[in-house]
Amino acid sequence: MDWVPETVHKTDEWRTGGSMKSPQGRTTENLTRYKGVEKKLPPYLDDAIGVGENIEEYLRNADYTWKDWDFLLRILFGSSEKQMILQKARQLREDGHPQAAGAGGAGPNVPTMDDAIPQVDPQWNPNEETSLAYLRDYCVYLIRAIKSAVPRTNTIAKAMSIEQEKHESPSHWLERIREALQKHEGMDPEGPAFDTLLKVQFVTKAWPDIRKGVQKDEEWQNKPLEELVRKTQ
């Protein structure tokens, strides 16, 4: 018999600061919903950020137990992907709390790694304040890990492989590159490196006739992107 997820829904009492209640809404409907989410997700290695954002949106209105997360990870990801995500979550947590990486932690208010990112069910009680805080931190690290666990060599290759189609407009081509760089490389769209790479990709992966026309100007790399787009209209 399949395990039924124990989703802890936020009741009105929780929102208004009332006393904690027993978990509500433990139904087999959640199993069906997980399966529904799985069908909507892109391949993980192709779009890790998109997968993470979809899961984050799905989890927005509820608190999920450790068992829920374990079940969700087993449904949505292969065993190697799941291990990659959990290892990344532990790495992210250690980066943020290096002093807590050891078995002794860093004091009574800083949980150890095994307490924060447990590998076996920690029996957190969502009706208890400390357990709920641990659980929510655990969810945050898992979402961050899902978005960033795929090795950059995989994602960079995806971003660099796209090329302009013959009848694709320059504006559409530019937007497609922009989306690929954000999705596969996770680059900051406001950073200078993003604009530089965007310009290089726009020209070097353009349709051959367009690329040759732009590259006739030996100073094209020093021209603003907006000017290059206008020249290819």
Automatic annotation (TrEMBL):
<feature type="region of interest" description="Disordered">
    <location>
        <begin position="1"/>
        <end position="32"/>
    </location>
</feature>
<protein>
    <recommendedName>
        <fullName>Core shell protein Gag P30 domain-containing protein</fullName>
    </recommendedName>
</protein>
<dbReference type="GO" id="GO:0019068">
    <property type="term" value="P:virion assembly"/>
</dbReference>
<dbReference type="InterPro" id="IPR008919">
    <property type="entry name" value="Retrov_capsid_N"/>
</dbReference>
<feature type="region of interest" description="Disordered">
    <location>
        <begin position="214"/>
        <end position="233"/>
    </location>
</feature>
<dbReference type="InterPro" id="IPR050462">
    <property type="entry name" value="Retroviral_Gag-Pol_poly"/>
</dbReference>
<feature type="compositionally biased region" description="Polar residues">
    <location>
        <begin position="19"/>
        <end position="31"/>
    </location>
</feature>
<dbReference type="Pfam" id="PF02093">
    <property type="entry name" value="Gag_p30"/>
</dbReference>
<dbReference type="InterPro" id="IPR003036">
    <property type="entry name" value="Gag_P30"/>
</dbReference>
<feature type="domain" description="Core shell protein Gag P30">
    <location>
        <begin position="40"/>
        <end position="232"/>
    </location>
</feature>
